[in-house]
Design goal:
Blueprint: E1 8-18, E2 21-27, E3 41-44, E4 47-55, E5 58-63, H1 65-70, E6 81-86, E7 105-115, E8 118-124, E9 138-141, E10 144-152, E11 155-160, H2 162-167, E12 178-183, H3 185-194, H4 210-215
């Protein structure tokens, strides 16, 4: 479990393809690895990775085909910068929101521009994730815990303060940049809970649709 508060910006040093999946070697910058051991978790641009090797300023992790298909990690090359956060200890403060490191999909930066000393970003989520994104709700972008300022269909806006620009990879984004998205954990479980007994049915019967909502007394408009 993570908070979405980035502890360091690292750099991909090496990507080895191994029978379809890959092994990454990541330089950790200022991240302290003194308390990290084999099998621990480090969120890498929002993706929970398991440490399988390490040195004083790097760690290695294997990335499965499933993770490659749902994230941007397979598109990175040597020198790519990544956000890093070690997993929570029981006594740590929860400064952002509850983040699992299980990416739901890949979004795209639509536009960005300065807004005072901050920056305003507009991003587009995959259509199947749009229902989980709410104004003033939480979302995780490449491992960064953020508050949604506005929503319009599958597009949403974020306000990025100077500290976040400096301490994360946000400063390197441009229109068209692709980012890892993790929607709010509570929203995912709430949807499943609302399905009730129909959750045991295969899709489409197990999903929430207009017909499902109407049959449970929700207005159609």
């Amino acid at each position: 479990m993570f908070t979405g508060i980035i502890q360091a910006v690292g750099e991909l040093r090496r990507l080895d393809r191994r029978g379809g999946d890959v092994r990454l070697e990541i330089g950790t910058g200022k991240l302290d690895l003194g308390d990290v051991k084999h099998g621990d978790s480090i969120a890498t641009s929002g993706v929970c990775l398991t440490v399988v090797g390490q040195g004083a300023d790097w760690f290695a992790a294997d990335v499965s085909l499933e993770t490659l298909s749902l994230t941007t990690l397979g598109k990175l090359g040597p020198g790519s910068r990544v956000n890093l956060e070690k997993s929570l200890a029981v006594t740590d403060r929860l400064g952002g929101h509850m983040v699992s490191g299980h990416v739901d999909g890949v979004g795209e930066v639509v536009s960005l521009g300065q807004d005072g000393r901050s920056w305003r970003y507009r991003l587009r989520a995959p259509d199947n994730l749009a229902r989980y994104i709410a104004r003033k709700g939480s979302i995780c972008i490449d491992g960064v815990s953020l508050t949604v300022n506005a929503v319009n269909g599958a597009e949403f806006e974020l306000n990025i303060i100077p500290a976040t620009m400096q301490e994360t990879v946000f400063g390197g984004y441009r229109a068209g940049s692709r980012v890892n998205l993790e929607v709010d954990l509570v929203a995912r479980y709430l949807e499943r809970l609302l399905q009730g007994d129909s959750a045991a049915l295969p899709e489409p019967g197990g999903g929430i649709s207009r017909e499902f909502l109407a049959s449970h007394g929700f207005p159609s408009t």
